[in-house]
Design goal:
single chain, alpha/beta, Aspartate Aminotransferase, domain 1, Aspartate Aminotransferase, domain 2, 3-stranded antiparallel beta sheet, 13 helices, about 40% helix, globular, binds glutamic acid
Length: about 400
């Protein structure tokens, strides 16, 4: 096709979605595939949240709403920020969109001019750089490798900021590594940001509630109140509330930025699904007891996967304190050849051969900007994880 825009030629399709789709296709074709690609909980949406969605349908709350969210949901979001993060926001500072992705996209579209830089620590979630490119900006990648626990150091942050830096994107606990920043680690970063008043902070807190081993979540505007006026605090109900398909993300920040995001949404998708908004009200206001129960299961699965991967010579898998991902290094396997004859030249070749030869779908590290690694989402059953890790062990033992 020759009629695509110049902008589109700069971006690629989402690799996480590509891997998930490929695994589903192979499964449908009868292959024995274990998908560890998709970052979504295997648990169903809790019953009280589902019931709120059904009620909304039955009571006819199925029409257009205010473009960026019903007042009831905005009130629930303000209460959530106060309760969980000690942050005060008014409803006029809140935006609701069709998933966390649309929130980030709206914010970038609303603020970037050609040449504006967006600073992104790597490994990063796959969509950040491509969204920046779609919005006409330039992603600038700052390394946060395994040697610093996949966390950006203040020195690396300082070194990557330029006069053109418009945003710093922060994500903790991280997709794809699961690494969560402690208060002190985050404070060291916000101290740097205080010295650069032209930089806005976009914090993606989607994995806030998925924390293990007593890890205490914190967010930039909470750690450094002086950054409140230039921080967009983004979150959503997808992961903690097992509501990925309902597509509800939200953010709070400066009122003029929220208004600009609303303008974009008013000319693109209009309001997020009305029924989903009512379900999200229940998610945020209702019982949160199931989150602790889910986290007990996630922590057990994490330990299982970390242990089995570290039994493999050539794999180094750190134990993360959040999200539901691990991001092992396969530096010790590069250059080898698989039993099926595939040369493991890089992490993409590893993931491809693993899928072809064992049916285990993972996402290769290059997609997240840091190699040689791969991402496993352990938000799936213990049995599937055990079987998948056994297959990975066998595959790696077969490398020569
Ligand atoms: N955020 C999830 C993931 O990383 C969902 C897929 C996507 O939107 O990228 O797998």
């Amino acid at each position: 096709m020759s009629r695509l825009s110049a902008t589109l030629s700069r971006v690629k399709p989402s690799p996480t979605i590509a891997v998930t789709t490929k695994a589903q296709e192979l499964k449908a074709a009868g292959r024995d595939v274990i998908g560890l690609g998709a970052g979504e909980p295997d648990f169903p949406t809790p019953a009280h949240i589902r019931a709120a969605g059904i009620r909304a349908i039955e009571e006819g709350r199925t029409k257009y709403t205010a473009v960026d969210g019903i007042p009831e949901l905005k009130a629930a979001i303000c209460a959530k920020f106060k309760r969980d993060n000690r942050l005060d926001y008014t409803p006029a500072q809140v935006s609701v969109a069709s998933g966390g992705k649309q929130i980030l996209y709206n914010a970038l579209m609303a603020t970037l001019n050609p040449g504006d830089e967006v600073l992104i620590p790597a490994p990063y979630w796959v969509s950040y750089p491509d969204m920046v490119l779609l919005a006409g900006g330039e992603p600038v990648i700052a390394p946060a490798g395994i040697e610093t626990g996949f966390k950006l150091t203040p020195e690396a942050l300082e070194a990557a900021i330029t006069p053109k830096t418009r945003w710093f994107i922060f994500n903790s606990p991280s997709n794809p590594t699961g690494a969560g920043y402690t208060w002190d680690e985050l404070k060291a970063l916000t101290d740097v940001l205080l010295r650069h008043p032209h930089v806005m902070i976009m914090t993606d807190d989607m994995y806030e509630h998925l924390a293990y081993d007593g890890f205490e979540f914190c967010t930039p505007a909470q750690v450094e109140p002086a950054l409140y006026d230039r921080t967009l605090t983004c979150n959503g109900v997808s992961k903690a509330y097992c509501m990925t398909g309902w597509r509800i993300g939200y953010a709070a920040g400066p009122q003029d930025l929220i208004a600009a995001m609303r303008k974009i949404q008013s000319q693109s998708t209009s309001n997020p699904c009305t029924i989903s908004q009512w379900a999200a009200v229940e998610a945020l206001n209702g019982s949160h007891d199931f989150i602790a129960e889910n986290n007990t299961v996630f922590a057990r699965r994490r330990d299982l996967v970390v242990k089995m991967l570290n039994e493999v010579e050539g794999i180094d898998c750190p134990t993360p304190n959040g999200a539901f991902y691990v991001y092992p290094s396969i530096a010790g396997l590069i250059g080898k050849t698989s039993a099926g004859g595939a040369k493991i030249t890089d992490d993409e070749a590893f993931a491809t051969a693993l899928l072809e030869e064992t049916g285990v779908a993972v996402v290769f590290g290059a997609a997240f900007g840091l190699s040689p690694n791969f991402r496993i989402s352990y938000a799936t059953s213990d049995e599937a994880l055990k079987e998948a890790c056994t297959r990975i062990q066998t595959f790696c033992k077969g490398l020569s």
